[in-house]
Design a protein that fits this description.
The protein has about 110 residues and is an all-alpha fold. It is about 85% helix and about 0% strand.
Amino acid sequence: LLIPHIQAMGATLATVVSEGLCMVLYMYLSRSYIRWRDLAKLAYKKVLIGAAMLSAVLLVGHMLPGGFGTLVIQIATGGILYVAGSLLVKDAFVLSILGFLKSKLKK
């Protein structure tokens, strides 16, 4: 819904909001198994990755003229930063996806 109106900014915002909603849902469903402090330690990494993504996408948007090409570059920049940031903080989900892809490529 946000992408047609505010383009890459909408995609980035939607990503950050969806990550936040997932985090809140995880916190609620696991409240009797995991301490809130442990979840906060995990959440701040996602927030920092999202902030880096947003900053980079905005910077690319200001440096390049508008249009479809700029949008594609902004999406690619955001995606690359998300994966790189997730790898940097050793996010289990991203590492498991990369492990799966690696095993499929070896076959």
